[in-house]
Each structure stands twice: as C-alpha cells, then as structure tokens.
Amino acid sequence: MIGSEVEFVYVGGRCKLAADLEPISLLKGDAVQLNKAIQEQRKREEERTRLRRAARLRKKVVEYLTRYDFDPQDVNAGAWCATSCFGWKSYVLPLHKAVEENRTDMILVLLEFGADPMLRDGKGRNAYYHVRSDAQRIQMQMQHLKIREEGSLKLSE
Asked: Measuring CA to CA, which of 13, 48, 101, 125 is 20 to 30 A from 38?
C-alpha cells in the first residue's frame, strides 16, 4: 500500500493501479484518461460543495433577516427599528445591524450575498461608520472587493 488508498498489482506481467478491485492500466494513454476523469470528479465535488455551502449560508442569512424583521429576500432592504430608550425609531440596514453587534461572521456572509456597505441608514451613516476596529474595516473592504469581482450569491436560489 502506497499512500492511503493507492495499491498496485501485477496483471499480465505489467504493473497496474488497482482501484475499486479493478486494475487500471498505467500506460500513457490510459493515464491521460484517468487524469481527466479525476479532474472531472474533482470539479463535480467542488460544485456540490459550493452548492451545499451556499444553501447553508442562505439559510443563515434568511434566519438573521427574519429575526430582525428585515425583508428575507433582500439583504439591502432596511427596516424601522427602535434604537433608543425613548422608543424612537430609525431606519436600519441588515449590514449595519451586524456591524453594530460586532458579528463578523454575519457581516462577511451578508457581503457575500451582495449587501452594500455604502448604503446609508436613517442617520446618513454607511456600514463603515459603525465598525469598531481597523482589522474589521479591512476585512469588510477585502470581502466587498472580492464579491464585486466574483459576483455575489443569490438569496432566491
């Protein structure tokens, strides 16, 4: 046994790779086909992993949005929330709320779903105003730039 799951066997006087009890030839043409098959399998696995992750994050975002009475279909839709001891209401956005609560995990997920940190709340402040540390500000900016380049996930999928 070489590595963890690789085994070689001799069949007809030639060394072949044994996988799932059926030997696979290691001749040049066969190795190329095997390599292509492995790459295709990896792509399928990466896509399945990406879809599972997106579904898990989508559920997390929808739960967060509904908990604070935001529209569960739009990460950029605000809501009127009581923000003072006097019961005054202010227009708050989901990303601003996550930043105020110092929920870095939720901040990054909301950004991944397309939340715009430059939108202004009821007091005219963007999300960066509420950030407590430079490290968090830089992390938000990097995530926002990454999502702008790669595209955001959709809540409606």
From this structure: 13
- Structure token pair of residue 89: 């209401």
The distance of Cα 77 from the centroid of its chain, to the nearest Å, equals: 21
User: Which pairs from 122-129 meet CB under 8 Å and 24+ separation?
Assistant: 122/78, 122/80, 122/90, 122/91, 122/92, 123/90, 125/96, 127/93, 127/95, 127/96, 127/99
Quick one: which of 90, 81, 150 has its CA closest to 114? 150
In angstroms, the CA 119 to CA 117 distance is 6
Task: Give residue for tokens 């901040």.
Answer: 107
Residue 3 in this model has a pLDDT that exceeds 50? no
Answer whether 107's CB lies under 8 Å from 98's CB. yes
**pTM assigned to the model:** 0.67
Burial class (CB in 10 A: 0-12, 13-18, 19+), 96: buried
Per-residue confidence band for 7, with pLDDT thresholds at 50, 70 and 90: low
